[in-house]
Design brief:
Oligomer: single chain
Number of domains: 3
Radius of gyration: 22 Å
Low-confidence stretches: 1-32, 444-448, 454-459
Number of helices: 19
Number of strands: 9
Largest sheet: 5 strands, mixed
Helix content: 40-55%
Strand content: 5-15%
Mean pLDDT: 85
CATH architecture of the largest domain: 3-Layer(aba) Sandwich
């Protein structure tokens, strides 16, 4: 598989070979708190796990008829577990559930499967392989907050995921499994479509673009009602916590970030794909479980297109949990990690990503429309070697000026990426300034790209 191949192998774990337990021992295996957890139900031959097999693997779930005290108890369980959102912001899930439950009106639950991050494949894997685990989480979240309606949002171009969820919903309806009304919505395949206010705006009949907050969705969302928007992986984790408890969930991970998480490895990795890890596992150990790297690695992009570049020697020992990553100036985000091989130009890859982000802006705020375009042009100039003493200073100033402005955090992510690239690739920048563009920068726009979806010319 080439470095730029965007086909995600369906890897269940960081082990080379995953031996799934026999169905009769599945519950006992899960309660031992080992891995895999989320991906324990992934079928060896591929395809979505059918409902009967899913229930045999994980056991039955409440039918959703929770009274006030029971709803509160479920939310308290999630709070004790320490589960945080797996969509990128890492917000405490229990706190979010309680805010919606206390909203005063009949709420709505939205399962956010609009995985706009090009470097991530985890949510699509869950929806495609274990859709019932996700839908269990949706039904439980609805029961916890007192919702009678839940909407599962999937990118309209994610054909396999849409088909798997459609079949799963049909199975559940025929089995009369859920008390909540579950609906499927196919959303536009845009980078910003998964931003929660953009998703709510789309479901309310508007464009899939972020809106100015407050009010936030938990205050007024779909049809003006309190709305819980949760990521696919977060809801799948919720389904396991409800079955096995908070102590089971906290048996792996760190004190601040307990549990497991899915990460998507790409780039110079022997076996790129989606892996389940215990939070806090050092990056080097995760890579070793994925077969190691395919050669010398210069840097890692941690956190996807809104992430940060780190030199390889800094990144490899880092524990993959927010506390350790934050100290190094980055975040796990949606769990996307890309290894940049030696010989590839980090400035060129950054220029491609920033151009992609500029083109994907919502077109409604000055910092995105004008600021990101200017930053993309300046980054491309640096990548080409068209450097003057003031260009880098202007780029840093512009990155600071767009930070925290606009209706969403789109400018913030681009600014963070650019600043990290200027730090990590400072030596490469000096070489470009001294010797002109490197070999990678001189390739034409049809050359292979390290990162998916940034295939447009960086001009």
């Amino acid at each position: 598989m080439s470095l730029n191949d965007d086909r995600w192998p369906r890897r269940q774990n960081i082990q080379e070979t995953v031996v799934l337990p026999p169905a009769s021992a599945a519950a006992a295996e899960l309660t031992e708190a080992g891995l895999p957890r989320l991906l324990a139900g992934v079928r060896r031959g591929g395809g979505a796990t059918p409902l009967r097999e899913h229930l045999h693997q994980h056991g039955p779930l409440t039918d959703g008829r929770l009274r006030g005290s029971e709803r509160s108890a479920l939310i308290e369980l999630v709070e004790r577990s320490g589960l945080r959102g797996r969509g990128g912001a890492a917000f405490p899930t229990g706190r979010k559930l309680r805010a919606v439950a206390d909203g005063g009106r009949r709420p709505v639950v939205v399962c956010n499967g609009a995985e706009g991050e090009p470097a991530s494949g985890k949510d699509k894997l869950l929806l495609t392989s274990v859709p019932h685990l996700v839908l269990d989480g949706v039904a439980l979240a609805a029961a916890a907050v007192g919702a009678s309606e839940a909407i599962v949002c999937v990118e309209r171009n994610a054909g396999d995921a849409l088909a798997a969820v459609t079949r799963a919903l049909d199975e559940r309806q025929r089995s009369r499994l859920d008390r909540v009304k579950l609906k499927l919505s196919a959303v536009p395949p845009r980078y910003l479509a998964g931003e929660e206010s953009a998703l709510v705006n789309w479901l309310n009949g508007g464009p899939a673009k972020p809106t100015v907050v407050p009010p936030r969705p938990f205050e007024r969302g779909v049809s003006g009602r309190p709305t819980l928007v949760q990521n696919v992986e977060t809801l799948a984790q919720l389904a396991l916590i409800a079955r096995h408890g908070a102590a089971w969930f906290r048996a792996i991970g760190t004190a601040d970030q307990p549990g497991s998480a899915l990460v998507t490895l790409s780039g110079a990795v022997a076996h790129p794909g989606v892996y389940e890890i215990a939070l806090g596992t050092p990056l080097g150990e995760v890579l070793a479980g994925a077969g190691g790297t395919t050669g010398q690695v210069e840097a890692f992009l941690i956190g996807g297109y809104f992430g940060s570049w780190l030199p390889a020697h800094t990144a490899l020992p880092l524990p993959l949990a927010e506390q350790g990553l934050r100290a190094a100036g980055c975040s796990l985000g949606a769990g996307a990690i890309t290894a940049l091989p030696a010989g590839w130009c980090g400035l060129v890859e950054t220029a491609r990503i920033v151009r992609y982000l500029a083109d994907e802006n919502a077109g409604q705020c000055g910092p995105c429309v004008h600021g990101l375009a200017a930053i993309a042009d300046a980054t491309a100039q640096l990548a080409r070697g068209n450097h003057n003493p003031s260009l880098e200073r202007r780029l840093l100033r512009w990155a600071g000026e767009i930070q925290g402005r606009g209706a969403c955090h789109h400018p913030d992510g681009a600014a963070r990426l650019v600043r990290s690239a200027l730090r990590t690739f400072a030596e490469e920048l000096r070489r470009h300034e001294r010797d002109g563009p490197c070999r990678t920068a001189r390739r034409n726009s049809s050359a292979p790209k390290l990162l998916p979806a940034a295939e447009r010319s960086w001009r």
